[in-house]
Design a protein that fits this description.
By secondary structure, the protein is α+β, with helices and mostly antiparallel strands. The chain is built from 19 helices and twelve strands. The chain has a single domain, classed as Cytochrome P450 (Cytochrome p450, Orthogonal Bundle), CATH 1.10.630.10. Bound molecules: protoporphyrin IX containing FE.
């Protein structure tokens, strides 16, 4: 039995959930001929797969090896050489080494210290918005907030944020796998070259004048015991910058989009915006209901059997985080947005296992600060498009624009 599911179909890009529900129900280990990958959609299977040593997170080098002698081969080889140093694309023991050093630098304390700064940035962004004004929420808010915050955390000067955003977007065409841009390897490799130069200089300057930033933590962690090479250090900074940016944008935009579609929930949020416990849970539910994660891809390092089907060594598997988040065996009435859901935080939007998102506390903090401030200043957010323009990434779910009208 094969269920027809085309992840590239325009209606799937707008709303993947009905098709994924069918797969989860009828064919939980599904070979997808369009993507030439196995699709896993049940919650328990996905959590187990995240911990299964037969599944490798290194999906970069097999691709690079296969493509480096073809069209755009030099660009692909350059991208591979540097991006293969990112923790997220490594398995233990190298992952343990890279992640351990990032953990030392990226502490909950450092993130929590930013709470007041984040509130200040949010207030600045919305200060001039007027009653009845039309804005692109993506461009005016969801995009600049995480970029400004990650720059603050890394210690990158605010005047350089524009470059960093541009480079991150270009790199996303490779890392988040744009389906349509034919020029994506050249564009992404060009951006990565500029980022490598930029961070090389930046890290040298911080080494001369160290402070209390995440980057200083990375430098000192890498100078002690289990060292990072200069390339690994630069790659880890770029990973943090990159990962801290686009996904959080999507949490803010998708989150507001979900609230607009559920006015009763929006009003509940507004009424309880000063209740920290309510707000924290509401953000977990926004992450679960229509968060920024579509899939976490893996490669079978060994044959992997599930529900009577076998993924052969070398084949790709996509763990559909967003399908797990709507699994009715875990979440009652899963297609309903319920900001008071008692187990909302069991979502797998940040992944699971050793690669669990290192930036989860920061992404959560930004949303926990942003939504209450937006709801305090504005009584309504009116969508100006019937359907939103969703990006064509395989990995992350987000809009490319979000035109709305504001009501004070
Ligand atoms: C709502 C926002 C975010 C979402 C939905 C998200 C999602 C994810 C997911 C699903 C993974 C696991 C990938 C896998 O297993 O293949 C991951 C890993 C990672 N994330 Fe996030 N992320 C977010 C925000 C951030 C932020 C703000 C940062 C940094 C400032 C960050 C840094 C990272 C890093 C470094 C990893 C790799 C961890 C490892 O491999 O050990 N993320 N993220």
């Amino acid at each position: 039995m094969t269920t027809a599911f085309n992840p590239n179909a325009p209606e799937t890009i707008v709303n993947p959930y009905p098709g994924l529900a069918e797969l989860r129900e009828r064919e939980p280990m599904h070979w997808n001929p369009v993507s030439r990958a196995w699709f896993i959609t049940r919650y328990d299977d996905i959590r187990a797969a995240f911990r299964d040593k037969r599944l490798s997170a290194d999906r970069i080098m097999p691709f690079v090896e296969a493509q480096k002698h073809g069209k755009d081969g030099d660009e692909i080889a350059y991208l591979g050489e540097h991006i293969s140093l990112w923790a997220v694309f490594n398995d233990p023991p190298r992952h343990t080494h890279l992640r351990g050093l990032m953990n030392k630098a990226f502490t909950t304390r450092r993130v929590e210290q930013l709470r007041a700064d984040v509130a200040g940035i949010v207030e600045d962004l919305v200060r001039d918005w007027e009653d009845g004004q039309e804005i692109d929420f993506h461009k005016a808010f969801a995009y600049p907030l995480p970029a400004t915050v990650i720059a603050l955390l890394l210690g990158v000067p605010q005047q350089d944020v524009e470059h960093l955003k541009r480079w991150s977007d270009a790199l996303a065409q490779f890392v988040l796998t744009s389906k349509t841009n034919e020029d994506k390897y050249r564009v992404a490799a060009g951006a990565l070259r500029e980022m490598n130069d930029y961070f090389g200089d930046f890290l040298a300057a911080r080494r001369r004048n160290p402070g209390e930033l995440v980057t200083d933590g990375l430098i000192s962690a890498s100078d002690e015991g289990d060292r990072l090479t200069a390339e690994e250090l630069t790659a880890s900074c770029i990973l943090l910058l990159f990962a801290g940016h686009e996904t959080t944008t999507q949490l803010l935009a998708n989150g507001l989009n979900s609230l607009i579609a559920h006015p009763d929930q929006m009003e509940d949020f507004r009424a309880n915006r000063d209740d920290r416990k309510f707000v924290d849970n509401a953000v977990e539910e926004l992450l679960r209901f229509d968060g920024p994660s579509l899939t976490s891809p893996r490669i079978a390092a060994d044959d992997f059997e599930l529900h009577g089907q076998t993924a052969r060594a070398g084949q790709r598997l996509w763990l559909w985080n967003c399908a797990a988040n709507r699994d009715p065996s875990v979440f009652e009435n899963p297609d309903r947005l319920d900001l008071r859901r008692s187990n909302a935080d069991r979502h797998v939007t940040f992944g699971f296992g050793v690669h669990f998102c290192i930036g989860a506390p920061l992404a959560r903090l930004e949303a926990q600060v942003a939504f209450p401030i937006l709801l305090k200043h504005f009584s309504g957010f009116e969508r100006l498009n019937e359907t939103q323009a969703w990006s064509d990434s395989y990995v992350s779910r987000g809009m490319t624009t979000m035109p709305i009208r504001l009501h004070r």
